[in-house]
TrEMBL record:
Organism: Ditylum brightwellii
Compositional bias of kind Gly residues: 173-187
Record region (Disordered): 142-187
Stored Pfam families: Amino_oxidase (PF01593)
Protein name in UniProt: Amine oxidase domain-containing protein
């Protein structure tokens, strides 16, 4: 951002943006980070960055290292799925067994969480499938659907009601929730 957006440009500073998956006990965390204060989140993040980059951040860095000038914490509790081990096997590939049907989205196979970055990479991978098909090149192929998904599909007798946030606030439609207002229902 500091390279491409004039309002963030600086000769002696750089910007770091971090996006975290849902960090709550439901997702396997020891702490409910969604409920933590902004200061707790920022302090824990800076400590972890200092641990990962000891020569750039924190007391071991030359001249004290990088200094946090400004921070903003935005909570979007249901913005991405919980990245628990083993979930990747349930993601479909971009290529499908249906002619002229290719899938792209944060839900499909790619190396990121369900996020904007994941959706962009998935779109790139889907475009590669289309290009490969158009010139007759062999592509990565269709990923098998996990057996447990097939079983659930075959044994399902009733339609499941959708779960998620309900209401007319942005979070109900995948947007960030900041500010105050009406009640948002979390099942």
């Amino acid at each position: 951002m500091s390279t491409c957006c004039a309002e963030y440009a600086s000769e002696d500073k750089s910007m770091l943006e971090l996006v975290f998956a849902p960090c709550s006990p439901v997702a396997g965390s020891d702490k409910n980070w969604i409920a933590a204060s902004d200061d707790e989140i920022v302090d824990a993040t800076v400590k972890e960055l200092a641990r990962l980059f000891p020569t750039e951040i924190g007391p071991g860095a030359p001249n004290g290292g990088a200094v946090l000038v400004k921070q903003t914490v935005v909570r979007v509790p249901r913005s991405v799925y919980a990245a628990t081990p083993g979930r990747g096997k349930f993601r479909p590939s971009q290529e499908s067994p249906i002619d002229n049907f290719v899938m792209a989205g944060d839900f499909a196979t790619q190396k990121y969480l369900g996020s904007m970055e994941g959706a962009v990479l998935s779109g790139k991978l889907a475009a590669e499938v289309i290009c490969d098909r158009s010139v007759g090149r062999k592509s990565r192929g269709v990923r098998d659907v996990h057996d447990s998904i097939k079983e659930q599909s075959e044994n399902r007798r009733e339609v499941k009601k959708p779960v998620g946030v309900r209401g007319d606030y942005p979070i109900a439609f995948g947007g960030g929730q900041q500010g105050t207002g009406g009640n948002v229902y979390h099942p």
